[in-house]
Amino acid sequence: MNGDRVLAAGSGLLTPLTLFLVVLCLCFLLCLVSGMAGDTASDFYAAERSLPAARSALALCGDYIPVTALLSPIGTVALSGYDSMVLAAGACAALIVLLVLAEPLRNTGRFTVGSVLETRTAGAAPRIAGTVLTLVVCVPLVVVQLTVAGNVITYLLGLKAPAAAQVCTTLIGLLIVSFAAFGGMRGTSTIQAGKALLVFGVVLVLIVVTGRRFDGDFGTMTREAALGSGGVEVFHAPGGLFGNTATGTLELLSLGMTVLLGSAVVPPILLRIGATRSGRTARRAASHAVVMITLFYTALVLLGLAAAAVVSAGVITGDDPQANTTLFLLARALDEGAVDGMLFTTAACAVFVTALASVAGLTLATAAALSHDIYAHTLRGGAVPDRRETTVARWATVTVGVASVFLAVLLHGWSIVFLASFAAAVAASVILPALVYTLFWKGFTRRGMLWTLYGSLACCLVLQLFSPTVSGQPYSLLPGHDFHWFPLQNIALFTIPVGFLLGWIGSRLGPPTPAELAQGTAARIRTLTGIG
Predict the structure, then answer these.
(1) Measuring CA to CA, how many Å separate 503 from each of 102, 121, 123, 444?
(2) Do the beta carbons of residue 288 and residue 99 sit within 8 Å?
(3) How far apart are CA 318 and CA 324, in angstroms?
(4) Residue 217 burial (C-beta neighbours within 10 Å; 0-12, 13-18, 19+)
(5) Residue 158 pLDDT more than 80?
């Protein structure tokens, strides 16, 4: 009898592991086949600007769905109801912001933050500032993704040792570094597109199985979800996430602004736009992605409701207080009466591929900024052979990836809310104002640009350091200390206006020079038409 139990447990573990290995080998093969097609810098960074609209749209969706975006919304909808549904709507609207920016961004002919900013003012300052921002945004996001992925894989494999999550994080991180270094933009795009299809397929299957469980009556499912999460009056009322106070309302509004405005301008998204064939292709890709992401988040809301109805909030918080395992709890519950363990195993593989593709995209964007903006243009003045720049880019990918893995392991067990909040706030408060002014305002000057970039970054850093994400709360980075004076953990409600205001004031303090006027006119023509 004991032998049968051991054998059954071994086969239960073998199925996810076997599927993981198959998916891993397939992904690596795709990276090798698609990523080694060319050895030029343009091919490594931007796939020779050859990606069609359909593939770019799928890849954009892949970039837009990191591990946290796949796991967190289902759990938060199941626990907090109304507030999380509002945030899901904001996440869909973020790609509408990208839809406005996509064609002008592609028309600049640039693909890193620093190179886009350089279209308005000459010199090394824009590229250096763009690289600093890319590091500040991407490295914390990589650490967050690796930490969550390591914890999830540990959970899926049933490992309980304290060091197990660190080992899983290290192994996953090193795998991802290899994918990004070998695959470049072509390989990463292929994996992102495949990941999007896999995630969409898994979500669709879960929706279908959920519909059958409730006989197609989603109204009944919604009522049971409310009963499973505190009752109708609580579940369908505001205040589930941050409380029904003035501070809670501001917190929700600030988080919504962060999701709406920050998600559209993270460096991997800009890199992806630069890889499309033309400005029109970029706009079509963004428009297709808007539709797909809207359907995706609608499905996540339904799965959150299903989790609240089938699993219940008490079981979810008992398994993981942060509710990141809700997807697996729902899949395991829906597996009853279905093919044994298949939903759970397939969901686990979708999460694994999501981690693989998302971190690879972030790592590639960071390496592109270091190798293209700093090495090739700032240090070498643009006179670098293609093969040499590609070699530097691959080594930069390895360096950034290994450093991020080290940080993820070092910070394991610490609160990562600070990293996620800060990176998202910087994207929304610094990168977005700088890009909007660069693309659409002829009067944007060098002074205004630097004020926006460094002034708003300093504002984000100060407010985040003295926010509850660092001290004063159980979820803080330093829970045993309390030196916070800023009441919100999401700071974008205040820092986004500061970013736009600093750029405007800095540009108005002195008239643009003739050279800046000429460059601004040329840049404006280029963003509108692609000419030049």
Answers:
(1) 21, 14, 18, 8
(2) no
(3) 12
(4) exposed
(5) no
Q: How far apart are CA 242 and CA 493, in angstroms?
A: 15
Question: In this structure, what token pair is assigned to residue 71?
Answer: 């796991």
pTM for the complete prediction? 0.86
N- to C-terminal Cα separation, the chain: 76
Please, which residues bridge with residue 276 across strands? 51
What b/e string do you get for 384-422 counting C-beta neighbours within 10 Å, with b at 16 or more?
A: beeeebbebbbebbbbbbeebbebbbebbeebbbbbbbb
Contact 121, 516 (CB under 8 A): yes
Q: What is the DSSP letter of 509?
A: S
Question: What are 154's strand-pairing partners?
Answer: none
pLDDT in tens, 15-67: 555 666 676 666 666 665 655 555 666 667 666 666 777 878 888 888 888 88
Residue 11 gets the label, from left (phi > 0), alpha (psi -120 to 50) or beta, of alpha
Task: Kindly report each contact of residues 467-471 with a partner whose C-beta sits within 8 Å and lies 24 or more positions away, as own/partner.
Answer: 467/421, 467/491, 469/415, 469/417, 469/418, 469/421, 469/422, 470/418
| Residue with the two structure tokens 């900024």 | 369
Looking at residue 273, its pLDDT comes to 84
Which H/E stretch holds residue 226?
Answer: helix 218-228
